[in-house]
């Protein structure tokens, strides 16, 4: 059975534009592939704690030395990692907030970047350990930045996900959503691209 992980990072949860576009893609995929199981990770509904020194100390402590609190910290991170390890396809709804990725998504990334588990250093440099998966990013933005120096998300996401071994990334941009003259056209275009993508999977 193929597992599909949907990471929602809109503060508006299912009502966010990124979540709604992702829902259309997922519904098309589920119609086509009844064998897909869908796991939803909603970062607004289930907030991830910001990484702190206690978390990092817990990650680095030897398993046998961990206190019960440290074991709980590691178990939480392990569960997030297991979820993404099991997924063959990862769909990320990615709003642009104040020129960055949502802080909830950064908190999630900080919990899944674990040396020896999701990446490791070798004599040839870093190696990502989440390999062989496909990622689709649905980026929703009030303005229009794709392809310009003001696009703070695309390189960051590519670098971070690539570091973990997630290099097969398809981007769908829905931009200009706060610009009345662009919104409708931008959403129609994004939906067409998502349907075409679903037809190819
Ligand atoms: C707190 C906040 C900050 C935002 N910052 C930006 C921004 O820096 N640039 C931009 O183009 N749009 C910005 N927007 C508009 C969002 O990118 C746009 O509404 C998008 O649809 C959000 O995706 P969502 O509906 O999935 O949450 C911001 C919206 C909010 C709520």
What would you say this structure looks like, in words?
This protein is an alpha/beta fold. The protein has a single domain (2-200), classed as 3-Layer(aba) Sandwich (Rossmann fold). The chain is 42% helix and 21% strand. The chain has 6 helices and 7 strands; from the N terminus they run E-H-E-H-H-E-H-E-E-E-H-E-H. The strands form 2 sheets. Strands 2-1-3-6-7 form a 5-stranded parallel sheet, sandwiched between helices. Strands 4-5 form a two-stranded antiparallel sheet. A hairpin with a 2-residue loop joins strand 4 and strand 5. Helix 1 (17-32) runs parallel beside helix 6 (180-200) and helix 2 (53-60) packs across helix 3 (68-86). It is globular, with a radius of gyration of 18 Å. The two termini are 15 Å apart. The mean pLDDT is 96. The protein binds flavin mononucleotide. Flavin mononucleotide binds at residues 10-12, 16-19, 93, 95-99, 140-143, 177-178.
CATH architecture title: 3-Layer(aba) Sandwich
**Count of helical segments?**
6
Order of helices and strands: EHEHHEHEEEHEH
Structural class: alpha/beta
Name the bound molecules: flavin mononucleotide
| Relative strand content | 15-25%
Radius of gyration: 18 Å
Please tell me the total number of domains: 1
Strand order of the largest sheet: 2-1-3-6-7
Overall mean confidence score, pLDDT: 96
Q: What is the CATH class designation?
A: Alpha Beta
Fraction of residues in helices? 40-55%
Distance between the termini: 15 Å
Shape: globular
Unreliable runs, pLDDT <50, ≥5 residues? none
CATH superfamily: Flavodoxin domain
The main sheet comes to: 5 strands, parallel
């Amino acid at each position: 059975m193929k597992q599909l992980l949907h990471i929602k990072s809109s503060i508006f949860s299912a009502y966010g534009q990124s979540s709604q576009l992702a829902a259309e893609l997922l519904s098309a995929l589920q119609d086509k592939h009844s064998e897909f199981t869908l796991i939803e990770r909603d970062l607004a509904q289930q907030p991830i704690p910001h990484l702190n020194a206690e978390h990092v100390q817990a990650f680095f402590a030897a398993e046998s030395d961990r206190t019960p609190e440290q074991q709980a910290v590691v178990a939480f991170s392990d569960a997030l990692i297991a979820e993404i390890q099991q997924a063959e396809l990862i769909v990320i709804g990615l709003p642009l907030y104040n020129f960055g990725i949502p802080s909830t998504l950064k908190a999630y990334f900080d919990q899944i970047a674990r040396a020896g588990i999701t990446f490791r250093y070798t004599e040839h440099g870093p190696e990502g350990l989440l390999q062989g998966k496909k990622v689709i990013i649905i980026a929703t933005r009030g303005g229009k930045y794709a392809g310009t120096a003001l696009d703070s998300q695309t390189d960051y996401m590519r670098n971070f996900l690539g570091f973990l071994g997630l290099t097969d990334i398809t981007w769908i941009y829905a931009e200009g959503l706060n610009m009345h003259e662009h919104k409708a056209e931008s959403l129609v275009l994004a939906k067409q691209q998502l349907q075409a993508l679903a037809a190819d999977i």
